[in-house]
Amino acid sequence: MMAETEHEMVEMTAAQKKAQRARNIAIAAVLIAFVVILYVGTWAKLGVNVLNRTL
Amino acid sequence: MTQMKTNSVDAVRDVPIISSAMPGDYIELLKPRVMSLVVFTALIGLLMAPGSINPVVGAIAILCIAIGAGASGALNMWYDADIDAVMARTSRRPIPDGRIEPEQALAFGLVLSSFAVMTMGVMVNWLSASILAFTIFFYAVVYTMWLKRSTPQNIVIGGAAGAFPPVIGWAAVTGTISVESLVLFAIIFIWTPPHFWALALYKSADYEKANIPMMPNVQGEASTRMQIFAYSVLLVVISVLPTAMGFASLGYCLFAAVLGLVFLYLAWKVWQDRSVDTGHRNEKRLFGYSIFYLFAIFSALGVDAIVMRLGL
Fold first, then answer.
1. Are residues B65 and B143 located together in one domain of the fold?
2. What are the chain A neighbours of B55 within 8 Å (beta carbons)?
3. What ipTM did this prediction achieve?
4. Interchain proximity B4–A9, CB inside 8 Å
5. Pick from B18, B20, B57: which is nearest to A45 by CB?
6. Could you identify which of B85, B122, B170, B300 might form a hypothetical disulfide with B45, taking C-beta atoms 3.0 to 4.6 angstroms apart as the criterion?
7. Residue B65 domain-assigned?
8. Which of B176, B194, B226 is the last residue of a domain?
9. What is the CB-side half-sphere exposure of residue B160 using CA atoms within 13 A?
10. Which domain, by its residues, includes B200?
11. Which among B18, B56, B123 has CB closest to A12?
C-alpha cells in the first residue's frame, strides 16, 4: 500500500496525446503493411502451390 | 481523461515518462540518407546477379535490407548518444536532442533487426538473411561498440558493414556468395576510407572533442592525406575489375576510368594543396564528389547489367 502512495497520476499534454496518436497510427500502418507483405510474398514465392496440399 | 502512472524512480531521474516522440523522430533514427545508399547498392547487386528473382520477392529483399540497415543505424545512435551530443554534426539527432530515450532507440533497433532478418530468411533465403544479420552485428557491435572508439582504422575495417549490401542483394538472387559480388564489396570497402577521411579532415576538431581516434587526429593530417590518395589509386584499379573479369562492358570500364581519374585528381589536390586559408575546400569537394562517384559507378553497373540482360 505504501508503494501505491508513491505513485502519482500525470495527465498527458496535448502534444503528448498528439504524438501518442501519431505513433499508434504509424505502428498500425506498419503492422498492416507487414501482414500484406507476408501475404503477397507467400503468393509470389509459392504461387499456386499454396493450394497444393493434401486435405 | 487520459492518465498514466509514473513512479518515484522516474521522478527522481527527471526523465519524461510519457514520450512526445513523433514517428518522424523514429524514422530519423534509421539514418535515411545512409539507407538510400545501402538500398541503391543492394539493388544493383540484385540486378547484376545471374539468374532471376520474382519481382515481389526482390522488392521484399530490398525492403529487408533497408530496414536492417536502418535498424543498425538506430543501434548506432543508441550506443553513440554520448558522443553524438558532443559533436556539432550529430548533436541534433533524436537522442541527444531529447526527443527519444536511449532505451526506446535500443528496443526499436532490436525489434526492426529481428523482423528484417527473419522476414528475409522466410521470404527470400537464409544465406542473404545470415549476411544481413552479420552486417547489422558488424556495424552495431564490431564498428560502433569496439572499433570506433579504439583505433584510427575504425572506418577502414568498419567500412565492411557498408560494403555488404550488394553481396546481400546478389545472394538474394543466387543463394551464393561469388567473386563478382565480392568485387562489388571491394569497391565500397576501398571507397570508404577516402570518403570518411575527407570528412574527418575538416571535422577533426569535432572528433577531437568527442575523443574519437580518427586518422587525422591520431596520425596527423599529412599521413591521412597521403593515405587518402593511396586508397584512391586502389579504388580506381578495383573499379575497372568488373570489366576485366567479364561481368561488365568496356563502356562501363571507360566510364569508371573517367570517374576514377576525377577522384584521383581531387585526392591529389587534398594531398598536395594544404593551404590553410582555403577553408578545407579540397576536402569538402572530395567528400561531395565521393558520394556522387559511388552512385555513378553503381548506376553504370546497373545500366550495364540491364543492357546485357536485354542483349542490346
1. yes
2. 44
3. 0.80
4. yes
5. B57
6. B170
7. yes
8. B176
9. 19
10. 178-303
11. B18
- Domain final residue, candidates B148, B176, B204: B176
**Do residues B166 and B39 share a domain?**
yes
Does residue B4 lie in a domain region? Answer: no
* Size of chain A, expressed as the number of residues it contains: 55
- Please give the grid coordinates belonging to residue B5: 502512472
Identity of the residue numbered B171: A
B63, closest residue in chain A (CA to CA)? A37
| Tens-digit pLDDT string for chain B (312 aa) | 344 444 444 444 455 568 889 999 999 999 999 999 999 999 999 999 999 999 999 999 999 999 999 999 999 999 999 999 999 889 999 999 999 999 999 999 999 999 999 999 999 999 999 999 999 999 999 999 999 999 999 999 999 999 999 999 999 999 999 999 999 999 999 999 999 999 999 888 889 999 999 999 999 999 999 999 999 999 999 999 999 999 999 999 999 999 999 999 999 999 987 666 567 889 999 999 999 999 999 999 999 999 988 876
Asked whether residue B59 is assigned to any structural domain, the reply reads yes
DSSP, collapsed to helix, strand or coil, labels residue A9 as strand
Comparing alpha-carbon positions, the chain B residue that sits nearest to A25 is: B23
C-alpha distance from B22 to closest chain A C-alpha (Å): 5
Three-state DSSP state, B100: coil
Domain-embedded: residue B311? no
Domain containing residue B146: CATH number: 1.10.357.140
Q: pTM, whole model, 2 decimals? A: 0.89
Domain boundaries along the sequence of chain A: 15-55
Nearest by Cα to B79 from B132, B147, B27, B19: B147
Closest CA to B247 of B48, B54, B31: B48
**Interchain contact A38–B (C-beta under 8 A):** yes
